[in-house]
Amino acid sequence: MLRTSIKRVRSAIATGDKAAATEAFQKSMSVIDSVADKKIIHKNKAARHKSRLSAAVKALG
User: Fold this and answer.
1) What tens digit of pLDDT does each residue of 6-35 get?
2) Nearest to 35 by CA among 25, 21, 49, 22
3) What total number of domains does the chain contain?
4) What is the extent of the structural domain holding 19?
């Protein structure tokens, strides 16, 4: 679930559609937080994923 949500954001970024990338990013944020809360991944890894995805989405503008 985590990897799929990240791939959706990356593919939306690759198409260059900022609206789609922003929407996919918002959905992936909740998935990443959920996985980190369940201690499947470390909270720092979750923060790193969110930070990198956020920077990539902002770079589209």
Assistant:
1) 999 999 999 999 999 999 999 999 999 999
2) 49
3) 1
4) 2-58
